[in-house]
UniProtKB/TrEMBL annotation, chains A, B:
It comes from Epilithonimonas ginsengisoli. GO terms for molecular function: prephenate dehydrogenase (NAD+) activity. Keywords: Oxidoreductase. It holds the Pfam family PDH_C. The keyword Oxidoreductase applies. This is Prephenate dehydrogenase. Coiled coil: none annotated. Residues 1-281 form the Prephenate/arogenate dehydrogenase domain. The keyword Zinc does not apply. Its EC number is 1.3.1.12. InterPro entries: 6-PGluconate_DH-like_C_sf, NAD(P)-bd_dom_sf, PDH_C, PDH_N, Preph/Arog_dehydrog, Prephen_DH.
């Protein structure tokens, strides 16, 4: 199977590496506006050949769009314009309502599968790509009823080759859930980094004292704005809803401390501890 | 050297395991109110013998207090009452101003060294203890001028055997810095867990969708209230100060989203990205 990867960064690159390793594909075209990324991807054996959009997509059985969600939404209609009924297109974006909405009336809508792998790191670019990536994680397919059965089947094979397990979900529900589970974590982490950078002027002290706990909580704050501004933009309403709740929750800690109500503080912490039972099932 | 560990949990247990492994000590007394912990510690070869406070402390060259900060503060004077000029006492608490204040007029003050190892996990109890723990992390000694030179030297040897590097700091400065770097991370993480638990009623969805990013950010929310309520209580003013700043920072994200000011959002994220340069020095 021939594949085109539009966007040869962390996610696109990692998918390509894994699918090549599994011999799911025998030829990968790389399409990327960033010539440096493209050359890196070639050197790192992520892709076999650099291509422009038209050549790559037209000659591929499967095209995987792995660029920031706003750009993905922008180019998807023209990618679908290029393909026929035997070709499939999937994306990997962290927001789903916008992208499925943007092509709902496209004649080739059914050749598209809306996909979101629940894996990523704070790093980006082809040099961060690794085939040791997606295994064991959830792979969300949205609005499967809007895709052709054979297109769906190809994406399910991709999921199997990535060693992920598929979850099927409505695009709107996906965007609500990921606001809770992924997007708010990033805002929290960014705001924590900004708090520390604002309050702690002694950078050496941050560096010296930073324990694994701090590094873990603030890790996502290293994630780049090119990826995350578009996600927050596309999922604005859901993210705001969760962010308001998060501020409310923080105010409870503030109030418990201010009033020296340590029983309430203990209650808040004991409630938070329940996340252990859910995450460690 | 004979050692008493008061509190045979994660930190006390891990220190004992490492110091035994390094042959720094040839006999460890375990002192713990929790009989189950004590028996576990014995079975796990963390300690050689269960002891009561008086027997353990009196017969040890070094006593390490590794219990929640409020209890440590409470028992420290009576521990110091039990020792002579050849014996040393250290604690491992995450707040330091309160404990040094509580014994500032004690006749044996100089036999005490205020210590804080910058390592921990969200787990607790002797079963979580591991000798693969402290290496490479910072070990803070506070107000060293208030300790006898030979007592200080013993604690510095402990630090070397834990493969940590010592940092010297005033107790008040320590409490300010740890509020920024450690304590606020825990509140953020607790509040994030509570947010998700409040908004996401479908526990299975949390479990299925939870990516490594979410797990990483929310990891500290598993930490127990027995340890953390006393820390927040003792470091209330500093924690409130940082918490207020953190809420202010989150409000900036909220405002940027509400006003659809995506340039400002990008600016906030780009600023947060600076944490990469500091953590990855």
């Amino acid at each position: 199977m021939k594949i085109s990867i539009i966007g040869t960064g962390l996610i696109g690159g990692s998918i390509a590496l894994k699918l090549r390793d599994k011999k799911f594909t025998d030829f990968v075209y790389g399409i990327d506006q960033d010539e440096v990324h493209l050359n890196n991807a070639l050197e790192l054996n992520i892709i076999d050949e650099k291509a422009d959009m038209e050549n790559g997509v037209k000659n591929s059985d499967l095209t995987i769009i792995a660029i920031p969600v706003d750009s993905a939404r922008k180019i998807l209609p023209s990618v679908l314009d290029l393909i026929n009924d035997n070709q499939t297109v999937m994306d990997v974006g962290s927001t789903k309502s916008g992208i499925v909405e943007s092509i709902k009336d496209h004649p080739n809508r059914k050749r598209f599968v809306a996909f979101h792998p629940m894996w990523g790191t704070e790093n980006s670019g082809p040099k961060s790509a690794t085939k040791e990536s997606f295994a064991g994680k959830a792979a969300v397919i949205c609005n499967r009823e809007d895709s052709d059965a054979d297109a769906l089947e190809i994406v399910e094979k991709v999921i199997a080759n990535l060693e992920m397990h598929p979850i099927y979900m409505n695009a709107d529900a996906h965007d609500v859930h990921t606001a809770y589970i992924s997007h708010i974590s990033h805002i929290t982490s960014y705001a924590l980094a900004n708090t520390v950078l604002e309050k702690e002027r002694e950078e050496d002290t941050i560096f010296q004292l930073a324990s694994s706990g701090f590094s873990s909580t603030v890790r996502l704050a290293k994630s780049h704005p090119e990826m995350w501004v578009p996600i927050f933009r596309q999922n604005k309403e859901n993210v705001l809803d969760v962010l308001n709740e998060h501020i409310t929750q923080l105010r409870k800690f503030k109030s418990a401390l201010e009033k020296e109500n340590f029983e309430y503080l203990e209650e808040l912490i004991t409630n938070a501890n329940k996340i252990r039972g859910i995450l460690d099932k």
